[in-house]
Amino acid sequence: CRTDAVSAVMIGELCDKYKVMALEEPVIPMNPMMQKAVHDKVKTPIASGERLYGRWHYMNNFAENNVQLLQPDICNCGGLTESKKICDMAHAYDVSVQAHICASPLSTTAANHLEAVLPNFVIHEHHICNRITYNMGLTTVDEQPVDGFLKVPDAPGLGNEISEKAYKMADAFAVVE
């Protein structure tokens, strides 16, 4: 999202040429008019939404039809319930969903549960952060794709919890006054 609309259109035209799945955040997402300007000039679907907060920030994008692949960030947009409402609103506008995930293994679990109940779910983002040794072991379940698929945990709650290792690491960084 660091490009202006003119540059984003130029990049979008290259994406069109190579039939790229989506052009992610071609411009600042807080300005739906700029995103619409890009959408109107390129064929590649626009992916956006990870920096929007709450369903009201998404409304103009849906009404203007300037996003085709929605990327709500569960941790940023108000949790699982608000994310589900946003995704349901997207479905009413025929917008597909890929939850944005670049945080902890716990947010991956939450997104996995959300995506499992969405009729407009398209693809899961498995961010490199989930493969970094530092993040592994922060939860009781380390979700990694097997043959391109993630299993939705079926244990109580989310089916994943913060691990003892994570609590000990947090204690080590705690500031004592």
Detailed description of the structure:
With 177 residues, the chain is mainly α. The chain is 37% helix and 5% strand. The chain is built from six helices and four strands; from the N terminus they run H-E-H-E-H-E-H-E-H-H. A four-stranded parallel sheet has the order 1-2-3-4, covered by helices on one side. Strand 3, helix 4 (79-92) and strand 4 form a beta-alpha-beta unit. Helix 3 (55-63) packs parallel to helix 4. It is elongated. The termini are far apart.
Layout of strands and helices, then pairs:
Elements: H1 5-17, E1 23-24, H2 32-39, E2 46-48, H3 55-63, E3 69-70, H4 79-92, E4 96-97, H5 105-116, H6 164-173
Parallel strand pairs: 1-2, 2-3, 3-4
Largest sheet, if any? 4 strands, parallel
- The gyration radius over C-alpha positions equals 18 Å
Shape: elongated
Strand fraction equals 5-15%
- Total helical segments: 6
Helical fraction: 25-40%
| Mean pLDDT rating | 90
Question: N-to-C terminal Cα separation, in Å?
Answer: 41 Å
The unreliable regions are none
Please give the number of β-strands.
4
Tell me the strand order in the biggest sheet. 1-2-3-4
Structural class: mainly alpha
Keywords, please?
single chain; 177 residues; elongated
Summarize the structure.
This protein has a 4-stranded parallel sheet with strand order 1-2-3-4, covered by helices on one side.
